[in-house]
Structures are given as structure tokens and as C-alpha cells.
Amino acid sequence: MLIKNMPDVPNGFDVITNSHDGLNFDGITRCFKNGGLFITEQVGATNNYSLFSFLTDNYIPAHPENVMVNVISKLVERGFQILKSNSFYPKIWFYDVGAFVYYAKIISWEFPDFSVLKYQS
């Protein structure tokens, strides 16, 4: 189920999971039964920051507020207890320019309006 399209089922779920989708904090809170469990995996604003800042002068992430401390704060404000949180910033290796172009094209939310001509020198 997509978090942004959550059904309006007050106190209807024991467990809600989310992976790489926007967080509707009020909807999550409303749909939980007492003692429910929310499990999420998010990609934050600083994902691939060094790559983007290398390619784009004055790079600003699309959603700069989407960092773990802010997400945790919003959940705690709504009464959630954080059982575990972690950040991971893997290195990405591209062995040819075609692999990079493919990557940039499929994650359009991180490379808006990407084109080879735009970055051609």
C-alpha cells in the first residue's frame, strides 16, 4: 500500500510498511492500532550528494528537509517510539558512461531533466 494513498481506516492496522515512498505522517498515525509497528526504508536528501554536487554547481536536493532527524522528530511528535534507525551511504561505481546515463535516466527524481547534452562539455 502506498503511504500517500492510504485508505481511511482509523485504528485499522497492526503493521504498516513503507519503502521509498512519501510519508503521510497524519495518515500513518490515524490508521494505527495502539501498539502498532511502522517499518520504513527511506532515501534521504543527502543520498548520492557527492555525485550530484560534482555534476551540478550549487546543487540543492529536491527535498532538503527529508533527512532522518526530521523524519524521526515528526514520528516522535505523533507518539511513536523509535526502536531502530540507521543511515547508509554506499559508494556507487560506474565502469562506463553508459551505465551512468542509464542510472541517471531511471532515477529521474534525483536527476530532474537529465540529458546527455545538458552535461556534455
TrEMBL record:
InterPro entries: 23S_rRNA_MeTrnsfrase_RlmA (IPR052939)
Name of protein: Methyltransferase
Species lineage: Bacteria, Bacillati, Bacillota, Bacilli, Lactobacillales
